[in-house]
């Protein structure tokens, strides 16, 4: 890993690369903020109360709330009481979308939230722990005249968690309870134009079904879907980012394979990071436009999960490797001038202070992933928990779109358990990470003082090491801070800012900007931490990589295209230190 | 050339007819919602002022400018505000029922009309639509250009702002595994009672504008009116005159007076305002409070379903009610009148 491009690059070029990346970053933010609409739209619906007049039907009939063939509807339940209509004959019908509009596969997903308007009555209050049983059917059609086709049908139970904020008196009869939102339905692809929901609240006093749920006045639904414009911008971004990451990844791996030594763990991890980023980037969503792939939502979650765990693992391993190298540095300072010690650092520089001469063992130790089991374990376990949780929620929704793990008590406890375990894993991970970063910094600051006393090549190597580490730390911190800041802004903010005549969609900017940022992050890591071709021991320019004397290094191009016989950094160091020792 | 002019003329007439029918068509679509909205406004007004001296009598609720006795007091301000709020509320609500074809999608927020805008960036909130139509219908009743008209328009606007101001922002998280990385928020209509309570507060803090003196119809005074009203926050209610004495019956103003009104005295969960209602309605108006016991038939031990079916037993119980009567004399007549009213009210409750 020593002799990465970042160390051997002149400050000028580093600045150029940095500015180019920043421009790309600003561009991704602007794409989201100025071109794309807001990411999602929420459409409120009020269920129409239809009356099912036929007593015993053979086949299922669908009730339309409006338009031709609309059902026989009533405006309020007082009307129903007057006409002696029973609760079992009332069907709540909601047509998605509203008149004159149609759904599109560009909407990607649709989730529906349920809310009851329940009036307070002194003698008909909501009982504790009341459950609503909903007999719900979902149907679709693709033109306005054909028959409805059933998509799903289910009996769903939802827990009513309502409270009445004002005093429970006669005077306040008729006021509504404040009820929590209930997740109702989630479909992972919107491939049909029209959807129809028919809900019934069957009453059965013997079985205690829908008894003690108060006086329901209305059923409100809110459907949330991704905006078509946002989907298009998002797809365009993915389509553009995939080749950029792919190309830099291939280039990076080619550099590694060109070296005379086998790749070390850190290099492999960086490659894995690139692969997982590409995995997210590949715009397979294009297929969801023409195919009815309901598992796309779940697949997207899995892809994101893989990337996040890869990124977290990368940070740990990066810190770990640098920790070891600084520890080696310690050993080297202690045993300065001993050639034997320096021989042992070929090709990789890793020696534990306790066992400074055991070369083969150290090398395998360094290249083994299992050294990090303690740190990577929580990541894997936490992601696994979240995966199980996601499978329980979105996996089951593939077959029953009305399923929700939060609807039942056992499910809620299970889900909470998974999430809490994942949270503990995350805390554990961050403790490990912070501890490691702290250790590296302690080592660095401790050894700073002894740097001037070292020979030039050795000093350069360790200055490079420190620089490399600090650079990544800085960039990572900035990226993480940006993510957190934008996340907070998008949570607090109304979603869009007005800037004169322009409307800036903050939420969209957050999504495209943060997505672009992590892409650029991975891109920059693969580019800057790829092994350099440059010779190390060039006496004239050797100081420049750190001090950044930009004037005199026109000949110091990073030789991206050279295919000369490769001499990589550590070997150079070995030569240099060897030479010194001979002297 | 002549022919050409003629064609233009006919085209112009046709356009006018088209406009007329367009408006008429729009009127037919929305009129039932507008009427229902105004009605709900009135009901809310009655509820809010049940224990005030002025109790929102039907006569006060004529929004039109044609009524010869146009008062411009606090109560008128409230009536205008609650009516336009009711219209806006009902229109917005009926939007989500699917009653109208173009809710929220006919504006130019995304620069595109109709279908493409919906696909690209969704529609704007229904409440914007409700506001626009309410403005079109309710404000159209105000034809004058004097201070009263300006006041009514201002209060109409305040009513609409009240609906917007009481809307609740609700959010739902739906990111990876249901986390909050993605969340969608929307504005939700409150109960109409919330709007009523909000406007009642505004009613108590209504601002008086002194514009009636020297009110001409000259351009200068019109400018002064516009200037005055534009300096007042659009959320506040505005009135020009002081309220008359609602204690006394006033036939010219169409005020019934507080005689014979019911008031509240004892009760566990009464608010301060309600507890003082007998003092306010009777005592301070120079009337006496009369206690009457009435036997009431009410339903009890009911078994409810969430809708419609209620099976109850009939229970009888005695309730004490309080009414305002004139001090001494004429008791008999009042009693019969008020008991009739009371019976009516009791019947209404069930």
UniProtKB/TrEMBL annotation, chain A:
Keywords: Developmental protein, Golgi apparatus, Membrane, Transmembrane, Transmembrane helix, Wnt signaling pathway
Keyword Transferase set for record: no
InterPro entries, A to Z: WLS-like_TM (IPR047843), WLS_GOLD (IPR053936), Wntless (IPR009551)
Molecular function GO labels: Wnt-protein binding
Transmembrane segments: 233-253, 265-286, 306-324, 376-396, 416-444, 465-489, 509-530
Compartments reported by the entry: Golgi apparatus membrane
Cellular compartments per GO CC: Golgi membrane
GO biological process terms held by the UniProt record: intracellular protein transport; Wnt protein secretion; Wnt signaling pathway
Stated family: Belongs to the wntless family.
Protein name: Wnt ligand secretion mediator
Gene encoding the protein: wls
TrEMBL record, chain B:
Region Disordered: start-end pairs: 329-350
Superkingdom of origin: Eukaryota
GO cellular component, as recorded: extracellular space
Record bears the keyword S-adenosyl-L-methionine: no
GO-annotated molecular function: cytokine activity; frizzled binding
One example of a Gene Ontology biological process annotation: embryonic pattern specification
SMART domains for this protein: WNT1
CDD domains: Wnt_Wnt8b (cd19352)
Subcellular location: Secreted, Extracellular space, Extracellular matrix
Keywords: Developmental protein, Disulfide bond, Extracellular matrix, Glycoprotein, Lipoprotein, Membrane, Secreted, Transmembrane, Transmembrane helix, Wnt signaling pathway
Extent of Basic residues compositional bias: 339-350
InterPro entries, per database record: Wnt, Wnt8, Wnt_C, Wnt_CS
TM helices/strands, residue ranges: 7-30
The keyword Lipoprotein belongs to this UniProt entry's keyword annotation: yes
UniProt function note: Ligand for members of the frizzled family of seven transmembrane receptors.
Family of this protein: Belongs to the Wnt family.
Protein name per its UniProtKB record: Protein Wnt
Source organism of this protein record: Salarias fasciatus (Jewelled blenny)
């Amino acid at each position: 890993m020593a002799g990465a491009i970042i160390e051997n690059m002149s400050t000028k070029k580093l600045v150029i690369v940095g500015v180019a990346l920043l421009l790309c970053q600003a561009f991704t933010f602007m794409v989201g903020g100025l071109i794309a609409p807001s990411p999602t739209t929420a459409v409120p619906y009020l269920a129409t109360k239809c009356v099912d007049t036929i007593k015993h039907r053979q086949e299922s009939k669908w009730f339309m709330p409006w338009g031709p063939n609309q059902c026989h509807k009533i405006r309020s339940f007082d009307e129903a009481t007057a006409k002696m209509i029973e609760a079992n004959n009332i069907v709540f019908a909601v047509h998605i979308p509203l008149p004159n509009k149609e759904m599109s596969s560009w909407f990607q997903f649709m989730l529906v939230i349920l809310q009851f308007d329940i009036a307070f009555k002194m003698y008909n209050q909501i009982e504790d722990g009341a459950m609503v049983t909903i007999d719900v059917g979902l149907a679709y059609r693709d033109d306005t005249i054909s028959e409805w086709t059933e998509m799903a049908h289910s009996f769903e139970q939802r827990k009513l968690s309502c409270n009445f904020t004002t005093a429970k008196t006669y005077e306040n009869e008729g006021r509504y309870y404040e009820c929590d939102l209930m997740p109702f339905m989630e479909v992972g692809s919107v491939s049909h134009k029209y959807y129809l929901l028919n809900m019934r609240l069957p009453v059965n006093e013997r079985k205690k079904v829908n008894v003690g749920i108060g006086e329901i006045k209305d059923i409100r639904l809110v459907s949330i879907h991704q905006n078509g414009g946002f989907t298009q911008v998002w797809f365009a971004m993915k389509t553009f980012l995939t080749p950029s990451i792919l190309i830099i990844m291939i280039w990076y791996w080619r550099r590694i394979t060109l070296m005379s030594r086998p790749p070390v763990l850190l290099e492999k991890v960086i490659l894995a990071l690139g692969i997982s980023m590409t995995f997210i980037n590949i715009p397979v969503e294009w297929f969801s436009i023409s195919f009815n792939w309901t598992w796309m939502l779940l697949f997207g979650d899995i892809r994101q999960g893989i990337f996040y765990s890869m990124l977290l693992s990368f940070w740990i391993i990066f810190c770990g490797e640098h920790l070891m190298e600084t520890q080696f540095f310690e050993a080297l300072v202690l045993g300065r001038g001993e050639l034997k010690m320096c021989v042992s650092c070929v090709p990789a520089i890793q020696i534990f202070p306790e066992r400074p001469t055991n070369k083969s063992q150290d090398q395998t130790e360094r290249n083994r992933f299992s050294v990090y089991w303690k740190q990577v374990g929580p990541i894997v376990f936490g992601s696994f928990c979240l995966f199980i949780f996601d499978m329980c929620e979105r996996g089951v929704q593939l077959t029953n779109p009305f399923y929700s793990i939060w609807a039942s008590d056992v499910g809620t406890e299970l889900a909470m358990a998974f999430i809490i375990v994942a949270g503990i894993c995350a805390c554990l991970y961050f403790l490990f990470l912070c501890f490691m970063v702290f250790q590296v910094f302690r080592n660095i600051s401790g050894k700073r003082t002894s740097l001037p006393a070292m020979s030039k090549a050795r000093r350069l190597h360790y200055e490079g090491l420190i620089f490399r580490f600090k650079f990544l730390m800085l960039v990572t911190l900035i990226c993480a801070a940006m993510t957190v800041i934008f996340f907070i802004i998008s949570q607090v903010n109304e979603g869009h800012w007005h800037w004169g005549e322009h409307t800036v969609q903050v939420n969209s900017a957050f999504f495209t900007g943060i997505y672009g940022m992590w892409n650029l992050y991975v891109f920059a890591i693969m580019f800057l931490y790829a092994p350099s071709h440059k010779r190390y021991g060039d006496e004239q320019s050797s100081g420049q990589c750190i001090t950044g004397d930009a004037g005199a290094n026109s000949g110091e191009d990073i030789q991206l295209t050279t295919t000369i016989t490769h001499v990589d950094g550590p070997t150079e160091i070995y030569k240099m230190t060897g030479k010194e020792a001979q002297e | 050339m002549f022919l050409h002019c003629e064609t233009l003329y006919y085209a112009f007439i046709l356009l006018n007819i088209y406009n007329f029918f367009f408006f008429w068509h729009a009127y037919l679509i929305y009129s039932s919602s507008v009427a229902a909205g105004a009605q709900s406004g009135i009901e809310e007004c009655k509820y809010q002022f049940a224990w005030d001296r002025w109790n929102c009598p039907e006569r006060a609720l004529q929004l039109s400018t044609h009524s010869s006795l146009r008062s411009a007091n606090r109560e008128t301000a409230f009536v205008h505000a609650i009516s336009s709020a009711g219209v806006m509320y009902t229109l917005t609500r009926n939007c989500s029922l699917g009653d109208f074809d173009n809710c929220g999608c006919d504006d130019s927020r995304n620069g595109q009309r109709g279908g493409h805008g919906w696909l690209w960036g969704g529609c704007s909130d229904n409440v914007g639509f409700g506001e626009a139509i309410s403005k079109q219908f309710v404000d159209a009743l105000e034809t004058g250009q004097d201070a009263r008209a300006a006041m009514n328009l201002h209060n109409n606007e305040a009513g609409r702002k009240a609906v917007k101001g009481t809307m609740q922002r609700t959010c739902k998280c739906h990111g990876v595994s249901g986390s909050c990385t993605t969340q969608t928020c929307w504005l939700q209509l409150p109960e109409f009672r919330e709007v009523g309570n909000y406007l009642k507060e505004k009613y108590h803090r209504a601002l008086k504008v002194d514009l009636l003196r020297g009110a001409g119809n000259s351009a200068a005074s019109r400018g002064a009116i516009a200037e005055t009203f534009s300096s007042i926050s659009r959320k506040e209610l505005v009135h020009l005159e002081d309220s008359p004495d609602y204690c006394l019956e006033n036939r010219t103003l169409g005020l019934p007076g507080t005689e014979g009104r019911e008031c509240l005295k004892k009760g566990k969960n009464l608010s301060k305002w309600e507890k003082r209602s007998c003092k306010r309605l009777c005592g301070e108006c120079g009337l006496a409070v009369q206690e009457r016991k009435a036997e009431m038939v009410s339903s009890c031990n009911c078994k409810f379903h969430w809708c419609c079916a209620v099976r109850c037993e009939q229970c009888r119980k005695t309730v004490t009610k309080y009414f305002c009567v004139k001090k001494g004399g004429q008791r008999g007549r009042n009693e019969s009148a008020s008991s009739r009213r009371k019976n009516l009210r009791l019947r209404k409750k069930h």
